[in-house]
């Protein structure tokens, strides 16, 4: 990597520096206003930006442009148009107008809409999101856009995310004004998503139908070694992995993605990448791009990057930690305890708002991370349980208790007491958290939501978080409205006292992986929505529909469409897994078992023909075992096929998903047990696919 990194960084991004140098001053100012305040963009400004963008893109080797968007699938979508425009004399010019920049009209009929768009109204449109910078990838100018139906309903993840950021901005700014902090004009949310992934050899990958079609292994006996030696986490990087990571960093940096930390994770062949945080919208786009580039760079290195939440049974799966906070346009992190009592009051109000939001909308947070893949992790003693609770740390928990009980907080460690006229305790940042079992942990100056799976966009959890916190702040604002400045501290004290009494049940500082906690959580009345079909019905519960519609994040129709899309997606995912497994067993593994049995049988009969009366005990024993397993595999296969057909034919979307969850998944487990046992008896040379040992330890 001989290149100058600062020069390389963002070299493929139409960033502020490029905009300033390429745009006339007044146009630049108008665009900045749109980006910062969300004001309407006039067509002359759009035209001017389009010209600058096109020039810059062509200078950097681009020939095409695309509106890049995030439909309700798990991937991003793009349709490329070239800049060429025939001039009528057999020549072309390179052309790109403001109208083309601002709006596109892709055919929307083949994207999931959950019944929002009748097929005769197949048109959808994409609208430029100027708050996320355009970039160049593979000779094409990528323009981040929102994707809506022709009548304006959101068909994507960006539209509601932008709406939720706007809602939170309004609620948070209003609260700051009430607290007397009138300087602040804007509050953004910030996100830093830590991304886990696996790397496997490409040639081995190709030999596994389950990895190719499902992204996870459906059968496979454990390797002799797993993660029990705890020698992979933060371990030395193998040369092939290290070369990959270097290349990956460089590609990400070119796109202005601030990749910062990389290390080996707990499971063999598992790794993690974390960027420096950014505003939520940009962080979401960057995470999508990061996942795509991870796969692309792996391919160049003869490897495949697995982003599935549970590629291998018996070792950890992959998640994504959503580090989240709020920042003012004056540069203050609202979840930073701060140094003065006034800052502390502010901090406590925002902290309490998050606690209230998480308690009241824990079901939505659970749903925001629900998928067939992530169901394998949550509650599996490697990831947080499906119960949403908050880790606050001892210090802050004490602070909250002292407010609740009107007792003075006795200082220990870094904590300072502010006795006297002041009601609220004054304390400084607590840095002691290292509780890794909590789904939602306060980590000094931000919250870390740890239930996310590695594959999904981080948009959903942030839509929920932004909206729920906005709602909590709005409710607090009503309680504090009209309070005189000199009464404010007392009023805040009383407000927090009321709120903590009501919401303290969601705070849990202990080990979230234990059965005792699950029992206690139930006693506390917290949700334990174990699987996706268990969780999703809460999405359309009245209180949640009320939350989203009152904040104008989703219309009722949009809420229902998402409910259907997610349920369908769940069922389809398991249907594909079932089909894949059936094919692997029927066409690959069962024939291997039969071949091996034939070899054993002929060995035994040849032996006795050469030496009559010789013992064939070991052949007979092996043959008996394999016969038994082959029988179980055949029976399991028939059951799986029949139950899958039944599930597939279930009309009601929820009932269908439940059938896949409770019947088909269970069938797959039963079948897998027989397959995995057979695998341990068959010589590697006869196995139709590479073992866990090869997949996990060959790089
Ligand atoms: P750890 O999770 O090990 O404590 P760090 O504290 O370094 O690691 O942060 C992890 C992630 O949190 C990084 O992506 C970092 O940029 C992000 N982060 C740090 N501060 C904030 C913030 N105020 N808002 C959002 N994300 C943040
Ligand atoms: Mg972390």
Textual characterization of the structure:
The protein is an alpha+beta fold and 699 residues long. The protein has 22 helices and 17 strands. It is globular. It starts with a helix and ends with a helix. About 2% of the residues have low confidence. Magnesium ion (MG) binds next to loops.
SSE blueprint:
Blueprint: H1 5-8, H2 16-22, H3 25-37, H4 43-59, E1 64-68, E2 80-82, E3 84-86, E4 92-94, H5 98-102, E5 103-104, E6 124-128, E7 135-137, E8 140-149, H6 158-178, E9 187-201, H7 202-206, H8 209-214, H9 239-254, E10 259-264, E11 270-275, E12 278-279, H10 280-300, E13 303-306, E14 319-328, H11 341-360, H12 362-368, E15 390-391, H13 394-405, E16 440-442, E17 447-453, H14 459-480, H15 488-503, H16 515-523, H17 532-535, H18 542-550, H19 556-610, H20 617-648, H21 653-681, H22 692-697
Parallel strand pairs: 1-8, 15-16
Antiparallel strand pairs: 1-2, 3-4, 5-6, 6-8, 7-8, 9-11, 9-12, 9-13, 9-14, 10-11, 14-17, 16-17
This protein binds adenosine-5'-diphosphate and magnesium ion.
Biggest sheet overview = 9 strands, mixed
Helix content: 40-55%
Question: What's the gyration radius in Å?
Answer: 28 Å
What value does the average pLDDT take? 92
End-to-end C-alpha gap: 22 Å
What's the number of helices?
22
Strand fraction band?
Answer: 5-15%
State the secondary-structure class. alpha+beta
* Shape category: globular
Write a concise keyword list for the protein shown above.
single chain, 699 residues, alpha+beta, nine-stranded mixed sheet, binds adenosine-5'-diphosphate, binds magnesium ion
